[in-house]
């Protein structure tokens, strides 16, 4: 546990209310994000097995706090490579310095990673060695120029020898497939993540072959909204480094292609301590690409003691404590469809489970945006050099659930 | 700096404290003696040594360890003296860590903390803005009451800093100081007022935050900045956006009329505002309809729309609640898409957003219906999310989608998450009651669930079925029989109680089963739950009354058992029932009605959404989430019946022109202007003149004339007490009033003085006049007040029938700032203006057209003070009208007042002393000016485009006073509307002309 105070010091005991709530909720997922205590309000997020709790005294939009906490976690991730207990413990001073810059009296100051990195340099092994010898510090002593300019997300004086701009178009399919294999609900959500390493102040514009596909879009602040409204072109001065350019939803009129199907037969026998489990996965509407990285996760009912299965492909694990079955399938080869078969051991005497568990499926298809979205061209203005450009498409399963 | 420390010593006796602090340092340092926690002490000892070393690296290490201690919540306060010494360290990282430490412990070690203050004071003057800002930040975070005056000073200075970053920090410091010492409120409000005028996007969010915290009720501070805030909004950083949007929502609810009545049909499309004359005409038609949205209201709604696309969930939610609370209902629909998008993000965001959607979906189903499927539950969702989604699905259920929903619910009922399954059953019950078509289907489905294996599911179904049956008690005997059988197996008390109650209520429909059930339960009475026992008693009583032959003994047996029960509720109930149903000599008249009492028709319970009562909280707030009023929650007011005066938001135009954001606003505004042809210029210009934005043209336009005349009329009504002074703000206020009740003006005129003086305005005037009076006559204040009042009365009585152009009477000084002042009527009729424009155009270029000023400040300047003018006072002001005396001249209006009690005769301009080339057209001599009378005259001066002073003599019959007029640069300019292209063309050539449009 680590604490930092603004406004006034709050006793650690306030956390007891939180721990209480945590105990009451069987699952960490079920800890309510907003808890009211006699004098304070606790707003928390759960991320990477860590709780970030903020103590609030007065009315504030809860999303404001939640969003900020996520931004803090993002920043830690960005600085330390991971947002874990160990990372925070090891870098407690930097954490403190960061928090100091990010928040003042309950109001966020600098949350853009580009600015923070100018104020406080991320730790690297080389730098820590140098610092310990020379006694110089990680803390910048001038106000980052971005803070004052109209483009606070970009730091000044960026220089690269190789100028590169990469875009990843990542689309996720959210779907609920019912027992009989028909689609109850399907939707495509996409993001474009960018990795921009360009010198100076490049002004980019990215256009699509079929921008009409994008139904509901949310933008990084750098994007000029007016330009998008009028021309459907993304025009922006990018931040330096990795960032999420846009996220979008594909309009619901378009039918969503479901790239996999699952045949399943899961049954629990009445009055006996075993059941059968049999699932097979096959490709469907995959646009001629291979489907890879398939994993199936099943939350088995509580009465399941153990599972005895044989996969034709890949490997499986069953955790008897959390009752989670994970089957790492890998690639699908249409000639031989992967399947997982076997017996389920149930707690004897307990009534058989009411419902069959749903299957959560993960997969990945490289070089394909399932919605058909295509980047047309990327133009750069404002700088003389020729950048190296690249676009990558990936389709993934999002919240993809098959009910059985 | 020196003044700082001076104040500091003076006010707080801080010098002593400093000394004390030093002593404390020396006494505490050998603290190893208190050796209780020796290991801890030793550790701290070496930290101290490190801190005192000469090497920065050692110090840094020590500080890092100390910060580590703070982070773990360990007490490191005893290191205070050693740490504070390093506050002036050159190494910025050490410095920062010391700051961290200071802020954490200053409150506990106030005296020692004072040691560091001078360092901050020095840093506040540092040329590096980052250092200034962080010094202010830390200084204001030190919660030591003694330094309040220092903080106040620092904030004041920082709020005028050149760097917006420092000003931003000043805004934050305001809140900190306010929480430390609420007494400073008034001073802080002044600073807030100043900072609200700031044009930097960096500052806007922070200062609004300070406003919300310190003085959220001072809505009047927002008026002038409203349009600026709306226009800056897109460029403000995201956190500021949230705060500003919430504040503006509240503002809008107090300043605009409700768009919800019938207005939904005639909503203007956004484009309307930019459009050509045809549309302008259309709008003119619209104006006549009952509701037209205030252009400022529209501005807010329009400018927040792009923010729905923000990546920040809080911003999206803020906009959503803004649309929900202030946009016309037909437009609020666009927020649903964005809210649904947020459901893709983290669990916590989902939770809050779903809660808000739940509240919205109760009131306006249609909004989220298209997204029904987005609320389908996944087995991996957290329970709280599932339940919220279920709630929304229930709210969205209607005849059309209920069958799909029920199919979906079937899946949910089987869920392993039993809490969720139980909630689903309740949901089905609610659907059954709200949609009568499916109530039978639902009931059957629920009955099927009665054979479910899981007890919780069964119990919940029983409870829900009970409620359903109560609503339609006809021929459901079969279900009741079925449930009676369940009684053998089911153990959940609520369910058992529900079954017993059902049987009791319907005991005449199931005459055979009921007594049998009673027999069975009598057997198990002692082992039942209290809840069930009560229902057994009820059942017994009901059966006794309907079927006493079979159940008399059984009931008495149960009553006997109940009599000795451990629970007093049950004993009470037993006693009550016995008295009521068992006839004996003591029982009163009531027992005759026992049957009616027990078997009365009971109203069916309403199955309602648990979110029903949340809608009185503003969406997106903490209070809404918790469903209780959180501390600091600001109530959203109801729409006013009549909109408060909209012109309070008018801003001086020059300021406005600068304030436009670079976000393409200017580009958008200009092109439509250039299409105006000359012949239409008159109309258009008059339209744009009244407003800073072309869109607000819908409102005024031709009314302008009336308004002004109304004003002057009103002013004359008030003139007895109206001093002439003040700023544009005051002017607009009075002018606005004229607009608002121009009809009432006449009445007001006739009204007696009492009503006038009762208004806050005039009372303030009285006060001020009394001040000036006391100055001049050196009388006691109270007396002088009396004198003034009498004077006022006199002037009112003696007032001549006032004509339109006589605008002001003056009684006193000009040191008043915010008293209302009248805007004199334009000296020229519109047609004359048009003529002049024509002249002007021919002289310059065909595309340049003079427009009337968008805003005329009412600021007047003193030409001649009444003290030096022997009772004759003169003020001048620039009406910004083209001068009738010559197109190179600037028109100046001079208002003359006679403050003596004798006529002043023959007022005229005497000798002129003008610099080279300057010309002046004087006003015609005034024959006489009555005591307390006032007259306004126009003159024209050609300043040769320079700010040189025009000196001349103002003469009366007896005296001559030399006076001079020096124009501010802005007044030398002529407002012109021209296209961008022409502007560029003319640039450099046209010195005298400038665009004031946008």
TrEMBL record, chain A:
GO biological process, one term: vesicle-mediated transport
rRNA processing as UniProt keyword: no
Main location: Golgi
Pfam families associated with the record: Adap_comp_sub, Clat_adaptor_s
Lipid bilayer topology: Peripheral membrane protein
Top-level division of the source organism's lineage: Eukaryota
Family stated for the protein in its record: Belongs to the adaptor complexes medium subunit family.
Name this protein carries in UniProt: AP-3 complex subunit mu-1
Origin species: Bos taurus (Bovine)
Lineage, top ranks: Eukaryota, Metazoa, Chordata, Craniata, Vertebrata
From TrEMBL, chain B:
InterPro entries in the record: AP3_beta, AP3B1_Ser, AP3B_C, AP_beta, ARM-like, ARM-type_fold, Clathrin/coatomer_adapt-like_N
Biased composition, class Low complexity, residue ranges: 718-729, 754-767
Family the UniProt entry places it in: Belongs to the adaptor complexes large subunit family.
The protein, known as: AP-3 complex subunit beta
Top-level taxonomy: Eukaryota, Metazoa, Chordata, Craniata, Vertebrata
Biased composition (Basic and acidic residues): 666-677, 738-753, 782-800
GO CC, alphabetical: AP-3 adaptor complex; endomembrane system
Keywords assigned: Membrane, Protein transport, Transport
Organism: Bos taurus
């Amino acid at each position: 546990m680590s604490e930092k105070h603004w406004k006034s010091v709050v006793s650690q005991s306030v956390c007891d209310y939180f721990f209480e709530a945590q105990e009451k909720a069987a699952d960490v997922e079920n800890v309510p994000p907003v808890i009211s205590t006699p004098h304070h309000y606790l707003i928390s997020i759960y991320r990477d097995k860590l709780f970030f709790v903020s103590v609030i005294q007065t009315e504030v939009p809860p999303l404001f706090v939640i969003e900020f906490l996520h931004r803090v976690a993002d920043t830690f991730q960005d600085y330390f490579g991971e947002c874990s207990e160990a990372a925070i413990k090891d870098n407690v001073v930097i954490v403190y310095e960061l928090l100091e810059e990010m928040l003042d009296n309950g109001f966020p100051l600098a949350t853009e990673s580009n600015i923070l990195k100018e104020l406080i340099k991320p730790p690297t092994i080389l730098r820590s060695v140098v610092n310990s010898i020379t006694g110089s510090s990680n803390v910048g002593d001038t106000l980052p120029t971005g803070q004052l300019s109209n483009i606070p997300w970009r730091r000044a004086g960026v220089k690269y020898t190789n100028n590169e701009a990469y875009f990843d178009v990542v689309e996720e399919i959210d779907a609920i497939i019912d027992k009989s294999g028909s689609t109850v609900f399907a939707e495509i959500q996409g993001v474009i993540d960018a990795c921009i390493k360009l010198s100076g102040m490049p002004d980019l514009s990215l256009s699509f072959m079929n921008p009409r596909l994008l139904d509901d879009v949310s933008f990084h602040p750098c994007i000029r909204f007016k330009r998008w409204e009028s021309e459907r072109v993304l025009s922006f001065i990018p931040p330096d480094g990795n960032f999420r350019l846009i996220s979008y939803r594909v309009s619901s009129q378009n039918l969503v292609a479901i790239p996999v199907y699952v045949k399943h037969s899961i049954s629990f026998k009445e009055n006996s301590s075993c059941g059968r489990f049999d699932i097979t996965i096959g490709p469907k509407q995959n646009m001629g690409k291979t489907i890879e990285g398939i994993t199936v996760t099943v939350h088995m009912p509580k009465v399941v003691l153990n599972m005895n299965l044989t996969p034709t492909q890949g490997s499986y694990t069953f955790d008897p404590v959390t009752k989670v079955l994970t089957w790492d399938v890998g690639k699908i080869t249409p000639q031989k469809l992967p399947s997982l078969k076997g017996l389920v051991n149930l707690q004897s005497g307990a009534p058989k489970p009411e419902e069959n568990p749903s299957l959560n499926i993960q997969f990945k298809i490289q070089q394909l945006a399932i919605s058909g979205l295509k980047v047309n061209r990327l133009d750069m203005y404002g700088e003389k050099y020729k950048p190296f450009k690249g676009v990558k498409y990936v389709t993934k399963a999002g919240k993809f659930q098959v009910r059985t | 700096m020196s003044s700082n420390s001076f104040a500091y010593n003076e006010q707080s006796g801080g010098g002593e404290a400093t000394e004390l602090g030093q002593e404390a340092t020396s006494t505490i340092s050998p603290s190893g003696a208190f050796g209780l926690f020796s290991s801890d002490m030793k550790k701290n000892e070496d930290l101290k040594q490190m801190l005192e070393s000469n090497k920065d690296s050692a110090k840094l290490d020590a500080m890092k360890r100390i910060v580590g201690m703070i982070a773990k919540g360990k007490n490191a306060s005893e290191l205070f003296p050693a740490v504070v010494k390093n506050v002036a360290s050159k190494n910025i990282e050490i410095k920062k860590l010391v700051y961290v430490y200071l802020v954490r412990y200053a409150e506990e070690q106030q005296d020692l903390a004072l040691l560091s203050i001078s360092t901050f004071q020095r840093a506040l003057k540092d040329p590096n803005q980052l250092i200034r800002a962080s010094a202010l930040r830390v200084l204001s975070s030190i919660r030591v009451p003694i330094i309040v005056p220092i903080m106040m000073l620092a904030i004041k200075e920082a709020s005028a800093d050149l760097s917006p970053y420092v000003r931003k920090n000043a805004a934050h410091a305001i809140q900190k100081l306010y929480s430390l010492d609420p007494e400073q409120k008034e001073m802080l409000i002044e600073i807030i007022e100043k900072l609200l005028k700031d044009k930097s996007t960096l500052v806007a969010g922070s200062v609004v935050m300070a406003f919300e915290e310190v003085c959220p009720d001072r809505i009047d501070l927002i008026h002038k900045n409203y349009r600026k805030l709306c226009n800056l909004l897109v460029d403000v950083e995201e956190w500021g956006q949230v705060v500003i949007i919430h504040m503006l929502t509240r503002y809008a609810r107090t300043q605009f009329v409700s768009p919800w009545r019938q207005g939904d049909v005639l909503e203007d499309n956004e484009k309307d505002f930019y459009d050509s004359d045809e549309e302008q005409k259309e709008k003119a038609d619209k104006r006549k309809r009952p509701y037209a949205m205030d252009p400022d209201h529209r501005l807010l709604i329009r400018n927040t729309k792009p923010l729905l696309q923000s990546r920040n969930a809080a911003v999206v939610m803020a906009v959503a609640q803004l649309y929900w609370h202030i946009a016309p209902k037909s437009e609020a629909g666009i927020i649903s898409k964005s809210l649904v998008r947020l459901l893709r993000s983290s669990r916590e965001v989902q939770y809050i957003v779903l809660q808000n959607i739940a509240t919205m979906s109760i009131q306006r189903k249609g909004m989220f219906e298209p997204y029904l499927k987005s609320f389908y539950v996944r087995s991996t969702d957290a329970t709280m999310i599932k339940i919220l989604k279920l709630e929304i699905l229930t709210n969205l259920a209607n005849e059309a989608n209920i069958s799909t929903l029920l199919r979906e619910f079937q899946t949910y009922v089987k869920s392993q998450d039993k809490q969720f399954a139980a909630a689903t059953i309740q949901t089905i019950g609610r659907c059954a009651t709200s949609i009568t078509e499916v109530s039978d289907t639902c009931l059957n489905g629920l009955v099927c669930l009665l054979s479910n294996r899981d007890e919780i599911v069964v119990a919940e179904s029983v409870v829900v079925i009970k409620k359903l049956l109560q609503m339609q008690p006809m021929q459901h005997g079969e279900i009741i029989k079925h449930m009676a059988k369940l009684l053998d197996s089911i153990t959940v008390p609520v369910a058992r109680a529900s079954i017993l109650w059902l049987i009791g209520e319907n005991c005449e429909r199931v005459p055979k089963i009921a007594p049998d059930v009673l027999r069975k339960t009598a057997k198990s009475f002692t082992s039942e739950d209290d809840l069930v026992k009560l229902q057994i008693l009820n059942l017994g009583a009901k059966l006794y009354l309907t079927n006493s032959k079979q159940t008399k003994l059984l009931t008495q047996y149960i009553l006997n058992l109940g009599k000795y029960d451990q629970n007093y509720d049950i004993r009470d109930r037993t006693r009550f029932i016995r008295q009521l149903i068992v006839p004996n000599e003591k029982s009163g008249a009531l027992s005759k009605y026992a049957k009616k009492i027990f078997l009365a028709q009971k109203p069916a319970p309403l199955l309602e959404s648990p979110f029903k009562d949340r809608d009185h909280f503003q969406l997106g707030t903490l209070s809404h989430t918790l469903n209780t009023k959180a501390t600091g929650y600001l109530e959203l007011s109801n729409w006013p019946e009549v909109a408060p005066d909209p012109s309070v938001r008018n801003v001086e135009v020059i300021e406005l022109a600068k304030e436009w954001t670079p976000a393409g606003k200017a580009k958008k505004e200009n092109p439509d202007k250039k299409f105006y042809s000359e012949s239409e210029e008159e109309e258009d210009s008059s339209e744009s003149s009244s407003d800073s934005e072309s869109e607000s043209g819908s409102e005024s336009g031709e009314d302008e004339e009336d308004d002004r005349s109304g004003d002057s009329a009103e002013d004359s009504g008030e003139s007895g007490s109206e001093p002439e002074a003040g700023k544009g703000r005051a002017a607009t206020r009075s002018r606005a009033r004229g607009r608002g009740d121009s009809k009432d003006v006449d009445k007001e005129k006739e009204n007696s003085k009492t009503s006038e003086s009762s208004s806050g305005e005039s009372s303030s005037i009285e006060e001020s006049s009394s001040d000036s009076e006391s100055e001049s006559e050196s009388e006691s204040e109270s007396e002088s007040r009396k004198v003034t009042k009498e004077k006022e009365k006199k002037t009112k009585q003696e007032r001549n029938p006032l004509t339109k152009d006589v605008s002001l009477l003056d009684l006193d000084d000009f040191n008043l700032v915010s008293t209302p002042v009248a805007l004199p009527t334009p000296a020229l009729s519109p047609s004359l203006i048009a003529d002049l424009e024509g002249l002007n155009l021919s002289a310059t270029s065909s595309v340049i057209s003079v427009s009337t000023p968008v805003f005329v400040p009412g600021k007047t300047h003193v030409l001649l003070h009444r003290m030096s003018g022997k009772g004759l006072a003169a003020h001048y002001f620039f009406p910004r009208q083209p001068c009738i005396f010559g197109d190179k001249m600037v028109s100046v209006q001079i208002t003359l007042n006679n403050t003596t009690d004798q006529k002043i005769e023959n007022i005229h301009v005497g000798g002129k002393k003008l610099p080279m080339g300057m010309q002046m057209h004087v006003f015609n001599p005034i024959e006489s000016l009555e005591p307390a009378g006032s007259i306004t005259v126009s003159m024209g001066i050609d300043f040769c485009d320079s700010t040189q002073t025009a000196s001349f003599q103002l003469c009366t019959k007896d005296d001559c006073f030399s006076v001079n007029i020096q124009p501010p640069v802005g007044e030398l300019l002529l407002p012109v509307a021209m296209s961008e292209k022409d502007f560029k063309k003319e640039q450099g050539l046209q010195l005298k002309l400038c665009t004031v449009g946008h």
